[in-house]
Fold these 2 entries.
Entry 1:
Amino acid sequence: MNVFDPQETAFLLHRVVGIDRLLQTPRYAHLDVETLDGVFDSAAAVAERYFLNHHRISDTEEPEVVDGRVVLPAAVGEACHAYVEAGLMRLQQPLDDGGMQLPWSAAMAVASFFQAANISTQAYLTLTAAAGNLLAKYGTQAQQQRYLEPMREGRFFGTMALSEPQAGSSLADIRTAATPNPDGSYSITGTKQWISGGEHELTENIVHLVLAKIKGAPAGVRGISLFIVPRYRVEEDGRPGADNHVRLVSLLHKMGYRGITSTILGFGEAGQCQGFLVGEPHQGLKYMFHMMNEARIGVGLSAAALAYAGYRHSLDYARTRLQGRAPDAKDPATPMRPIIEHADVRHQLLRQKAFAEGGLALALDCAALCDDVETATTPQAQDDLLLLLDLLTPIAKAWPSQFCLEANSLAIQVLGGYGYTRDYPVEQYYRDNRLNAIHEGTNGIQGLDLLGRKVHAGGGRALQLLGERIAATVAQARAAAQSAPADTAAALTAHAQQLEQATARLAEVTAHLARLGAQDPRIMLVDSSQYLTLFGHTVVAWLWLRQALAAQAALNAGAGVREAYYRGKLAACRYFFRWELPTALALADVLVTPDDVILALDTEGMAP
Amino acid sequence: MNVFDPQETAFLLHRVVGIDRLLQTPRYAHLDVETLDGVFDSAAAVAERYFLNHHRISDTEEPEVVDGRVVLPAAVGEACHAYVEAGLMRLQQPLDDGGMQLPWSAAMAVASFFQAANISTQAYLTLTAAAGNLLAKYGTQAQQQRYLEPMREGRFFGTMALSEPQAGSSLADIRTAATPNPDGSYSITGTKQWISGGEHELTENIVHLVLAKIKGAPAGVRGISLFIVPRYRVEEDGRPGADNHVRLVSLLHKMGYRGITSTILGFGEAGQCQGFLVGEPHQGLKYMFHMMNEARIGVGLSAAALAYAGYRHSLDYARTRLQGRAPDAKDPATPMRPIIEHADVRHQLLRQKAFAEGGLALALDCAALCDDVETATTPQAQDDLLLLLDLLTPIAKAWPSQFCLEANSLAIQVLGGYGYTRDYPVEQYYRDNRLNAIHEGTNGIQGLDLLGRKVHAGGGRALQLLGERIAATVAQARAAAQSAPADTAAALTAHAQQLEQATARLAEVTAHLARLGAQDPRIMLVDSSQYLTLFGHTVVAWLWLRQALAAQAALNAGAGVREAYYRGKLAACRYFFRWELPTALALADVLVTPDDVILALDTEGMAP
């Protein structure tokens, strides 16, 4: 059972996302395709051996507090140890610092294996990597020496501590306070909630990256600073020392994603809690957004990875489970057939494939855009890439966390009653995946971000840049149709036209809403989640057309034993354009019709 | 917190479904509206006191086998006892037999309270009621005396035992065998799976209604007979006696719906298992379908009841939780507002309301149709009503189990991170509700039933009858628009036109598919689930227009303190017609476009 598949990853990265272009840049000149694929294969082996092995245990043996200490299954610690030993904490570390200096997109491809194998256990490690990336970018050399290096060694793990009980999505309203001390440190007081990995004994120390307000700071998000707050103070020799007064108030108990501790933390309640400012005061949100934007793409990737895991399980089941007969073969004396022969099961599998592989392509494409931003050779190119990346980030987070959850529901449905039991993993994927629409900014927040900010960025340049890329794919599809077999040529031509029309329609809807927004932002934003769905489906249609083009190119080149696989890509692309894009486009007509229900709603009457 | 609401039920039953017409029939002449509402109120009190009280316990204290006996939380037994004591097992029992002789629709309204309060515990009782209804219809007087009366007394509970491990959805392939004994009984051997309530110690005995094949019977579904198979043989004095060799092979452990035992049962393994034929040999499926059709409507109702419970929780949360500010009020010094003020949260609430109350209306309307069938005064009227009921039954089962699950997901989303924790009940509703798309025939089976059989029944008469009823509602809406305020008049007129067009489009799609089916049923049925969605949304749009008409009529009559509530109905109706019906209608265009992906799929290529 492949719940993740390096061959699928290789197709997406090399042939669709095109990360090989990064290998032409000076930063990644030390890499080649074979090296990358070798990293993927060895990471996949670690994921299978040390993470997949306790997938169910992560769910059934939830973290608990025993005698004041958080207890986890032994397999979690073993997995983290194996991950560190395999060098996977050093994927992005600079070469001259002893790391592998991989592109982030390659690191994300690796992450997707671990997300599929064990979403909870990998979260301790990817949170640490994300915190490490932030310190690598904004921390001082001394801070990096003291906190980042032990994270890379796996001695310290990291967290991001943003939310508070009274301010879930509203960071402007956080109350955690930072008071300057004479030695340049700060005293931190307050409460944080939903902090993943906020307490455990997997490592010697935990490095919390905490948003707090320095006394006298401006109100709202402009007054937020970022602090390193270790659980234990770090001595001069680098070892953890005295308690830094970060108290575990309680563990939270979730529907899924149970293996990683979700915590409420109290800072500085019983004694001084020292925090160390990262960068400049009041710039904390900017720094954190560097981490959060990567985290958002990571959330989308994990949603897709879980969808892929469920897809492969249900595909395997559908190929072997015998049940029923064809509609035109009702004689009960004839043998039953594998359920994959039933049309409705094929729908359920193709829809999963369309969502899972579409989601993987979307997240990896955004990850590669991050790499492009970092390796851009001119400021103008970098600005453009950043605009495009910022535009796509809310989609990369929200779209998979909505539709890849639906994929997990379909996986259950393929297995029927068995899928609903805890004897099969598909129900756990469904429960685990339900978090992804909530954390790192709810999908509602992503819709507001997209329609309220991102599509208008650069005076509309972001949308124009996306349109240019889509137009290039459309042109490629028309060109490819020239040399494709008749059946595929007709499909590619039709897809190209559909995508062109959808993109034009999206631009019209956007312009219409922008005009409304000039008068009243409330009217513009009233249906922002539905706008995000329309936008997301259009983007994923684009990614599916790119997958189809890559598959057809491979077929043209002579695919050998992989021929069926590439034809499967063409089929999934057709499925998306047949069923998904048209139903999403129906939203466009509603979006340009004035709202007559939401803004004027009398909420008193919602129930007797 | 009202997770169910007799006032909502009263609105739907009296003003939308119109069950008061039943009170004009001789069978229900002993009832009046006040009596019915009194039954609802007292049943609601039982549901709140004895069922809602252990909602979470039903999830956390799953049934387990201890020393060979199934152990349940004490609250389950107490609840069942209170239910029986309140006379709720006798709701449908004939008057002259000591019962209340209520219409089934009224009994279902009562059931919906218990479904919302505790889906698992009520299942022991509603399964028993359903088994009892079957025996009341098809059992001999002696069988009724021996098995039915103790069920009404709550001394015996009932099950329906259809599925087998190798034949989940495919009843033609069941293997359980019945061998005639000289005394007229049968010896039953075989294995049944997914039997809810298949083992417990809540009652003295369990009456399994088992599908089995008598040796020499025709192959397939035409060779299936129905048997009463008690867990303990029943002595002449009515008391349970010797073990009848129905062995609990194992309990199944599910994602949700955990409080009712789901079992694998072995019949006749270690000794003779006696079964008693119900009705004629080989007619078992026909009898069972009487129960299954009611059960399918019951599944739809329970999906809607769970959606309603989640809706009310999230509504309550949204009214009190403070978070964020308006898009045009970004000053962080202004106070935060209740999240119900945010447009996206309103979407999430209205969508839940549209699905939950639409689903309740659909299930109750079908239940009242069952009553109409029973009270019809001419064979022609009865035939017509049965055609219409049969047409709507797969929709009543599948539509709520798909969209009311989505409602539960939205309830989680409104609560954000809190909704994902087990501290709030919304995540449990979501897990519990996920079963409903699977049991009593998966939704895929319902789609095949609808498009493969029901829409063609009576040479298209079923569809014609539905069309006539919808046309009548459309005409009422146009008439009501004449006397409604301008705003509502415009909405009603637009809804009437939309519904008329959707119904016409549905008829076109159906005729198109029927033509295809004449050539090849595989081609007709390839997208049957998507057809069911289109059909379901059209039917629910009809039910929403009926709700709007009832609300407007109440407003015209002077609604007093209930004015806001009726306006809420108008708003939810607008929401459904604005967002739901158009996106479902987009499926129609796809359904009439030839399939180019499902039937020709090379399934080898679905993964690398």
Entry 2:
Amino acid sequence: MKSDELFALLRRRGVLWPSAEIYGGAQGLYDYGPLGAALKRRVEEAWVAWFPGLSHDYYVIEPAEILPEAVVRASGHLENFTDPEITCEQCHASFRAETVLEKVRPEGVDGLSPTQIAEIVSARQVRCPNCGSAALSVPRSFNLMFGMDFGVTGKERAYLRPETAQGSYLSFARMWDVGRRALPLGIAVVGKAYRNEIAPRQLLFRMRAFTQAELQIFFDPATFPVPFDSVRDERLPVLRVARRSAGEESPELVSAGDLAASGGLPEFYVFHLVHSFRFFRDVLRYPADRIRLFEKSDAERAFYNRIQFDIEVRLESLGGFKELGAVHYRGDYDLRRHSEGSGRDLSVTLSAGTKVLPHVLELTFGVDRNVWALADVHLVKDGERTIWRLPPYLAPVPVGVFPLMAKEHAAYALRLSDDLESQGISNRYDEAGAIGRRYARMDEVGTPFCITVDGRTLEEGPDRDTVTLRDRDTRSQERLRVTDLVARLRPALVAPRPRRA
Amino acid sequence: MKSDELFALLRRRGVLWPSAEIYGGAQGLYDYGPLGAALKRRVEEAWVAWFPGLSHDYYVIEPAEILPEAVVRASGHLENFTDPEITCEQCHASFRAETVLEKVRPEGVDGLSPTQIAEIVSARQVRCPNCGSAALSVPRSFNLMFGMDFGVTGKERAYLRPETAQGSYLSFARMWDVGRRALPLGIAVVGKAYRNEIAPRQLLFRMRAFTQAELQIFFDPATFPVPFDSVRDERLPVLRVARRSAGEESPELVSAGDLAASGGLPEFYVFHLVHSFRFFRDVLRYPADRIRLFEKSDAERAFYNRIQFDIEVRLESLGGFKELGAVHYRGDYDLRRHSEGSGRDLSVTLSAGTKVLPHVLELTFGVDRNVWALADVHLVKDGERTIWRLPPYLAPVPVGVFPLMAKEHAAYALRLSDDLESQGISNRYDEAGAIGRRYARMDEVGTPFCITVDGRTLEEGPDRDTVTLRDRDTRSQERLRVTDLVARLRPALVAPRPRRA
């Protein structure tokens, strides 16, 4: 499906829609409806089970979304978190310089100064993408943070966090103090980040308010031991800088062992790249051949990132590979800057007595983008209808409970529905229409299992009652005891966890 | 425990701490550590199971936190969401007028104009609460919303939502369209709200960023049927306006039936008041004799609220009753204002053909305040130690898994820990120190169940292995089969749900 068609479908189903719709919408803001909110929550839970699940020493915290000015000054966001912006003086539309130069400079404008961009605009006689006018402004650096007055004086400024990571860095000292005082120490945050994008577009891919899931792993640069043998033979679809320079866009399969041995990447980095790849392939179940691990070059990545691979997935709706997550080796940049900014030395003394300023390995994940990708990849057409083949533990409504005939079987089915809820199995009761239509409705919202109560259920004795269980993907039905339902359903509804390191 | 002592304890344990602590903190902002974030999440989940669980037609959505200016103009927040503020011209401290007048006017300043407040300050020769100076400024209306530039032009303004409710109102039309097109329809939001408080104080009770859980029930004012008989005999601890006027501060027990029959309250209102009361008593397990349902007078409640009872709980740490939730009957205010503001008629046509502008019943809940209250009420001292007697389904770490002796039993216990996780039972593995100390550590963080693997476990045959299960509150230990663990633990770890209406 094309992007517009998919969005229209999701909107019609109440998965998501433009925020403040009745006021004509608010650019770059979206609301999640009941199905979307449930799906998003389950994606977040699956991420938490997987990434913080990598170690007993990785924790999830919930820091505030508002940052005092001193924090974003130290982090560099106040100065550098900018995007070159160009306004058309004819039609008054604003654009990212990258968009204006899309055709003449497809490799983007990263690393160019406003002056250099202005020269290209002039030399190539670039025109407004909207009205075609040549009256384009000189580019200016536009800071993407939302700033606001904090407190009553009008003198204090604060900012909505442009990334969740800052909360982890700010909390490192406290987490060290209350914890085991050992490295590595992981601090994860799942929450909103905010960017005043110049030109929000591509729906959930450039939003002004969006949800990130990020794990910051603080480690001793001298040693970050990982059980590398457990991943050594995993073959990763990498697209490295050298291969890109040769004009290739498709990845090649390289084993983790080779990436570390001859590929020049540290084992700890490759280990986490493997686990990130596995999350996309095994948990979100994107087909392996639609995933590539895209290495960023020196010019493309932020100056403090020493190594960066984006995890990209090919999306039909957006016509190409899109970044859905990444693994950044950020060195000591973050704790060094906050040590300087706060005046508090964030280096720690290890049990061996050595003092070290921890380095950071950052695993990032765009929650909204992945909600979109889960629709793009798993929503398949079946004639007039659609089936949303979501992994069962991500389904907004994991179970449907139906009486075959409302009149006769409703009481039993309602009791069963409540009973499943009280055992933590979320479900939807539905008695409306023919059973085939009810299956179809649940297929559309991605429900993997439907339970039907029928005449036989009521005839059987206590503890021997049976129901049918219908599988979304195979459409097979089996008869099983009500008392066995929970044990049967539960394993499919818990998101996978990695073997712990 | 006093407030400071309790906060110091929670901070030491990594439950929560001031945000941006290494920068000296940011007034009114707090970060939740691992235990706090987990507790908060479970409180939110319990709220969702209970309130949206009241009906099949109540849904949870996740709308954006940023509101365009047109929305807050229509809702009245741009004009009216203000607090009178007074600055001391000597020491430059800012205060809410209510705080400055605390001693001379304990009933507060609701409904007074800045001029009236200025007259009281002058007549009573009120002085600065901070430095004692008489140089107090004339009060000004200070808008509590955080406003910011939206987009690149500098002309468009947006605001952080001051309450989650607006997202539900804005989504009503879309939810009507995608749903059953019937009333009542409930739309719930759990998420952040933001207020630029003049003087944040009392820790989690007046924050600048905080989490609300709110359910907006849209209903036909002509009929809002509820199964009132199911609550008729519930006796509620109410403190009504008439009783308050007589100087009483303690509630009296009145049955739901009497409140509706002779008390002049609509049955739909009392029904939801009962369910709110039950949530605080039965789910959060605040002792019934510390709860009161505090009716707000005409002068105290917002002008659009027709009926308002705050649910208050007596907290030792804060020396009195504190509002932790409320039930507001808001009439048609919200949809009428947004119909006018957006130009879209938000009235709906019911199946009978009648056209109606729905009324709103709002159930509110302060998540952070309740996290605090759960510490205040359930954290009890036991000699040098503390035991956090949280309801099991709210415990940040519901289960502890220990090997009796690390050397011999660790492998089995680790496998059991992973196995429980894969069945959705969150737990912490601990092998450090004597078993009694491990129990004590788990008692402190509120873990209700500890499982110990010992010599006997390993001796028993497949499927017959047993472990000990220790209960936090009774300290009793029982021996049970590993295969029976999940079935035994699960019911205690799922938050209660109400009988559905």
